[in-house]
Amino acid sequence: MYVRKEAVLSSQTEGTQSSLQDLLAAEAHMFTPDMPHDVDEVVNHVAATNYGLERLKELPLSVRLIREIHGRLLQGVRGARLTPGELRRSQNWIGPAGCSLNEASFVPPPPHEVPAMLGALENFLHTDSSLPPLIQIGLAHAQFETIHPFLDGNGRVGRLLITFLLCQRQILPKPVLYLSHFFKQFRTEYDEHPQAVRDRGDWEGRLGFFLRGVAVVSHEATETARRILALREQHRGAVTASLGRAAANGHRILEHLYQNPIISVAGVQKLTGTTYTAADNIVSRLVGLDILQEATGYRRNRLFRYQPYISIFGENTSREDGA
């Protein structure tokens, strides 16, 4: 869920409208007419994150891996025609929508310099340094954004690099920081600091902002973890006290919900190996305990969400109440 929340917020920073609820619904194939069309971009972000974390077990963070991640991020969505996984071969620029190159607020390096600049960044990441790791990661993120090596998706890939570096350096055992929450909350500063570095060399301001974000989100993520553990113990106790002989299956379902917080009766049947009637009965009892909540309003093919858990990550059931 931390990965999902970061994917939603990072994508929203780039203008998507999909919420965490939309992402969870899409993962459960629970599509509705009002679901934003850009939810596939968020689904791709989750997939790219998980793919990158797996690849880091066998391949160090490198230009090759960055290109692979970019390809996964843009596969089949907006930007898919802009050479996913390939370094740009034309000039790009940053500025107001519709602006020309001459009106741009920032023009990244010309395309023929991009491979060498990324190579230098890769060397920086793998050279022994006396810099504190968070400073090195903050510098790397800033430099990647300045190189702007792709025609689209640079912001999302750059934020993913932070997560990958934190995990690769074993600063985090798991990707539990959703830094995009801080970046989105202070969007103006997030956009202004890179230009201040380019115009005035204000590295102190950029790194101070980055470190402040790490500190703030670390506290938030820690509090989220505490709330999850408290909720888990509360609901384990309720399942043990109320489900009797079905408690073992109740615990199995509960643990599953922490990875996939939307489930169907058929999914419960498959998970527990019981009959459909028994699965339907245990779902009804979990609804009675306020652990599960019916999410579709249908009489058949119903889906149930673990709403108390989802709400810890800051979203209620309606998109209007969400992030």
Automatic annotation (TrEMBL):
- InterPro entries associated with the record: Fic/DOC_N, Fido, Fido-like_dom_sf, Fido_containing
What keywords are annotated for this sequence in UniProt?
A: ATP-binding, Nucleotide-binding
- Catalytic positions are 148
Pfam families hit by this protein: Fic, Fic_N
Q: Where does ATP bind?
A: 152-159
Q: Which PANTHER family match?
A: FIDO DOMAIN-CONTAINING PROTEIN, FIDO DOMAIN-CONTAINING PROTEIN DDB_G0283145
Q: What is this protein called?
A: Fic family protein
